[in-house]
Amino acid sequence: MPVVIVHYFAALREKKGRETERVEFDAELQVGALYEKLFPSTDGQVVPVAFAVNKTYVSADYVLSDNDEVAFIPPLGGG
Amino acid sequence: MFVLTHDRIDSTDLRAAVSDHGFGALVVFEGVTRNHFEGRPVERLEYEAYADMAQAEMQRIRDETLQNWPSIKLAVAHRLGVVGLGETSLIIAVGAPHRVEGYEASRFVLEAIKSRLPVWKKEHYSDGESWKANT
After folding, report:
1. Residue A3 near chain B (CB below 8 Å)
2. All structural domains of chain B
3. A52–B118 CB contact, under 8 Å
4. Residue A43 has what pLDDT?
5. What percent of chain B has pLDDT over 90?
6. Which of A35, B34, B50, B132 is the most exposed, fewest CB within 10 Å of its CB?
7. Are A3 and A22 in contact (CB under 8 A)?
């Protein structure tokens, strides 16, 4: 089964209590749908995020491939 | 030159990296940690990065900057981990033939960093903490 490695940062990392997670999937999966799966809205407050795959920003409808490195990017605070 | 480090940062090495005998302007921007947020005293700040992607994104920001202002040199340092109040969290050094390119490129890089570089900031107060987003 295809697998992606998901990276969590900042508020999302605290919410999950971990920095990375290995996620298997069988059908075609978009990165936005993966986020909804991992952070269901019934879960309380869902932080707005952007998406990155293999260290590049992508849109929510990006279709994941085996071994992609996925990151959910909560609101940035650099500077 | 792009440095992402848990150590203190200062502009000496960055200035050296962007100096050139043909340049008439050196613009150094420093972002410094503030001691309050909406009236609440901040005790300390903490930065976290997606380091691999930050390197890649900074390279893209550098490429775009040099496309727009081909004659400049750019060096950037961002500090991570706990940063004390009043300390420098970001330095952008731009060397340029003239002041206009220097100021413009520096501002462009700063806004790109704030909107795109995968770095997060947590503020710690005496009675709590919060992740602080750029506006």
Report:
1. no
2. 2-126 (3.90.1170.40)
3. yes
4. 62
5. 90
6. B34
7. yes
The H or E element that residue B46 is part of is: strand B40-49
Q: Taking the model in full, what pTM does it have?
A: 0.94
pLDDT tens-digit map of B10-42: 999 999 999 999 999 999 999 999 888 778 889
**Is the Cβ of A79 closer than 8 Å to some Cβ of chain B?**
yes
What single-letter amino acid sits at B88? T
Give the pLDDT band (50/70/90) at residue B127: confident
b/e per residue, A38-72, with b = 16+ CB within 10 A?
Answer: bbeeeeeeeeebbbbbebebbeeebebeeebbbbb
Are the Cβ atoms of B114 and A71 closer than 8 angstroms? no
**In terms of CA atoms, which chain A residue is nearest residue B33?**
A79
Is this complex's ipTM strictly greater than 0.85?
yes
CA distance A33 to B79: 33
Average pLDDT, stretch B94-119? 98
User: How far A29 CA lies from chain B's nearest CA (Å)?
Assistant: 22
CA distance A46 to chain B (A): 14
Closest residue to B90, CB basis, from A10, A57, A79: A79
DSSP A39: S
Do the Cβ atoms of B90 and A75 come within 8 Å? no
Domains present along chain A, CATH in parentheses: 3-73 (3.10.20.30)
Do residues A77 and B133 make contact, with C-beta atoms less than 8 angstroms apart?
yes
Nearest-CA distance A51 → chain B (Å): 11
